[in-house]
Amino acid sequence: MAVEEPGVRDRSCRPGRQAVVDDGVAQVEVSDARTVAVTGGEGHGRRQGGTGGVPAHGQARRVETQGVRLVHHPVQRGVAVVDAALEVLDHQGLDMVTMRAVADRLGVQHNTVRWHVENKRRLLVLMSDAVLAGLDVAALPLPWEDRVRALAHWCRGAILAHRDAARLLAGLATTEPNTYRFADTMIQTLLDAGFSHRTAAWANWTIFYLVLGITHEQQAQSPEAPDRMMEFNDPEYPALSEAASHVAAGTYEERFEFALNMQVVALRVELDRMGDAAT
User: What distance in Å separates the CA atoms of residue 222 and residue 219, rounded to the nearest whole number?
Assistant: First the structure.
């Protein structure tokens, strides 16, 4: 999806081409063979034969203009901006994600990005939610233990797919659809298994914190960092010295699987305890 700066240049609109004008993303539909130039929006230029006016928030608007129909979809605002921000994240890291960097990535001016995403914090929230997009609930296994494991692994994979994504998610309280969908699926899985509402909700947080914590450490570690724990030997810390060879042993995936297994075992014990208490 392309993002264009309102009123900066004329564009030729052809079938299926995306354009962004002053009030959102417009899907350009051409009703005949003619090419029609569109310039900005009201207050930024002119549409040949078009009409002005900005729709109310959340409403769509159609503009008929010399064989071109612009169907504005405000719900699509910011999609291209978020995609560009994720590209900046992947190529340059979280510290380099700025409104100006996103604008440069899109080839537009800084204020154009702010038109679609009002501030950097909102941009980071939308980015964090986009990281968790694409959960296919129908493809998850049905047994609750397998389902919990699959959800945890999917979440870890989604975060690892983007550079610094764990740090991005850790710094935000995101209340957006993809984030809600993941939590809702995890909690529903546990409720269906017979856990209480409290246990289901808190187990969801426990597993998410596990995913986030170990993934954050993995993404933050420098590949050149020396592994000193393998040779740690200090009489002040006898237990740590004895177990030193295991502290840094194994891959992050192996450590994650071990920790996740402990969580699932604890949940199974809790479920058995609830069953015994009921009888």
Answer: 8
* Polymer length in residues for the chain: 279
All structural domains of the chain: 10-76 (no CATH), 79-118 (1.10.10), 137-278 (1.10.357.10)
Residue 24, Ramachandran bin (φ over 0: left; ψ between -120 and 50: alpha; else beta): left
Residue 69 is which amino acid?
Answer: R
The token pair at 201 is 């909700």
- The tens digit of pLDDT for each residue in 203-258 reads 999 999 999 999 999 999 876 555 555 677 889 999 988 988 888 788 999 999 99
Chain Cα centroid distance, residue 57: 24
How high is the pLDDT of residue 61? 38
With H, G, I as helix, E, B as strand and everything else as coil, classify residue 145. helix
What confidence score (pLDDT) does residue 19 get?
40
> pLDDT digits over 162-200, tens only?
999 999 999 888 899 999 999 999 999 999 999 999 999
Question: What is the per-residue pLDDT for 275?
Answer: 80
Q: How many whole angstroms separate alpha carbon 50 and alpha carbon 37?
A: 11
Largest CA distance in the chain: 84
* Residues whose CB is less than 8 angstroms from the CB of residue 154 and which lie 6 or more positions away in sequence, other chains included: 135
Strands of the sheet with 18-21, listed across from one edge: 18-21, 24-30, 68-73, 61-65
Contact 47, 38 (CB under 8 A): yes
Instruction: Give dist(CA 201, CA 150) in Å, integer.
Output: 17
**What is the reported pTM?**
0.73
Mean of the per-residue pLDDT values for the chain? 78
Question: What is the rounded distance in angstroms from the CA atom of residue 195 to the CA atom of residue 188?
Answer: 10
**Phi/psi at 187 (nearest 5 deg)?**
-65, -40
Give the integer Cα–Cα distance in Å for 201 and 198: 5
